[in-house]
């Protein structure tokens, strides 16, 4: 079992922009390098079922996951159901940070490489959160000015 948590700082003014990026299911490959393609298969009452093509080559690079987006708590839960990785990843926008908590297991043929894969997942997660944070900071002034302009009545 691979369990870890990664947190990167986030300027409070970028929280809204970070949430828009983090909760964009189809846009996951833009920031999460391990996901080559994410395709919505079915809308369900408890989330969205997605087909995933992972970034590594070979016949075992596809999986299925149930993705739940909770706007109230600013959390995206990804339950990997089929494929080389199974388990739960929860990504969140917190008051001054982006976080990602992992509790996953590898397919039997990958378990021998678990220490290497764990390091790879931790590093990739940190880089994804850093990319999201940087993009959110860049977008935040634009979102704030649009909100001010749209929110005025005259």
Description:
The chain is of the alpha+beta class and 154 residues long. It has three helices and seven strands; from the N terminus they run βααββββββα. A hairpin with a 2-residue loop joins β2 (35-44) and β3. α1 crosses α3 (114-151). The longest helix is centred in the last third of the chain and has 38 residues, at 114-151. The protein is globular and about 45 Å long. The chain starts with a strand and ends with a helix.
Distinctive features:
154 residues, alpha+beta, Alpha-D-Glucose-1,6-Bisphosphate, Chain A, domain 4, seven-stranded antiparallel sheet
- Helical fraction: 25-40%
* Total DSSP E strands: 7
Biggest pleated sheet = 7 strands, antiparallel
**Mean of residue pLDDT values:** 91
Q: Biggest sheet, strands in spatial order?
A: 1-7-6-5-4-3-2
Number of helices: 3
Quickly give the structural class.
Answer: alpha+beta
- Provide the gyration radius in Å: 17 Å
Instruction: Find the CATH topology.
Output: Alpha-D-Glucose-1,6-Bisphosphate, Chain A, domain 4
Element-by-element helix/strand order: EHHEEEEEEH
How would you sum up the global shape? globular
CATH top level label: Alpha Beta
CATH architecture annotation? 2-Layer Sandwich
**Superfamily at the CATH H level?**
START domain
Low-confidence stretches: none
Measured between the Cα atoms of the first and last residue, the distance is: 58 Å
Strand content: 35-45%
């Amino acid at each position: 079992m691979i369990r870890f948590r990664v947190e990167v700082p986030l300027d409070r003014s970028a929280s809204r922009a970070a949430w828009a990026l983090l909760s964009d299911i189809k846009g996951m490959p833009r920031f999460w390098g391990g996901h080559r393609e994410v395709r919505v298969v079915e809308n369900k009452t408890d989330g969205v079922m997605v087909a995933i093509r992972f970034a590594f080559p070979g016949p075992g690079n596809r999986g299925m996951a149930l993705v739940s987006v909770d706007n109230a708590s600013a959390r995206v839960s990804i339950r990997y159901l089929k494929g080389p990785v199974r388990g739960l990843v929860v990504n969140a926008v917190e008051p001054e940070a982006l976080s990602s908590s992992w509790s996953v297991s590898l397919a039997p043929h990958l378990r021998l490489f678990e220490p290497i894969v764990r390091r790879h997942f931790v590093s990739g997660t940190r880089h994804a959160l850093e990319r999201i944070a940087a993009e959110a900071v860049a977008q935040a002034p634009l979102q704030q000015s649009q909100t001010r302009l749209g929110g005025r009545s005259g």
